[in-house]
Amino acid sequence: MATKILSYEEIIEQARSTWTGKTGDERAESVKKILDTRLENYHQITGISKDEILIAFEKARNVNTVNFYQESKFPLLENVHVFDTIEDYRKAFPSGKYICPKCEKESTDPYECSQEKCDWKVYGLFGDLGKGIKVIFKDKFLEHPVPMRIFKPVELVAVAS
What we know:
This protein is α+β, with helices and mostly antiparallel strands and 161 residues long. The chain folds into two domains: 1-75; 79-161, no CATH class. 42% of the residues lie in helices and 11% in strands. It contains seven helices and six strands. The strands form two sheets. The chain has a three-stranded mixed β-sheet with strand order 1-4-5. A three-stranded antiparallel β-sheet has the order 3-2-6. It starts with 7 loop residues before the first helix and ends with a helix.
């Protein structure tokens, strides 16, 4: 966790100060680009203010700004299922069943395959193999300001077929 919550300007300046000259300027520009694009994108998708999102990012930061504000850590929110609460998510996918991306069988857990002969985990190195979904719970987003990946709910498989 960040020892001090930095302002937008302080984040960019810290990135610049990690190296002198042109390299420092490039690092600052890279961090600025991530902040500008992600704050706008995340605000548009969630309806949460950019200031609140920036504070959430900073609360989650546990390394310097250059290492933290990376495209891989903060993907653009595209093809994301957004729910106000976990209860709304459960109403949308009431079966509580998911398709494991590895064995392609039903799992009762959205993160770990519940099949006896499969030990696939969505949070492992290869994630959801591009077969899962990304979800956001608005009421928890400021505590965890990135989308979560889960196995695809069976309700979405039936729709896609």
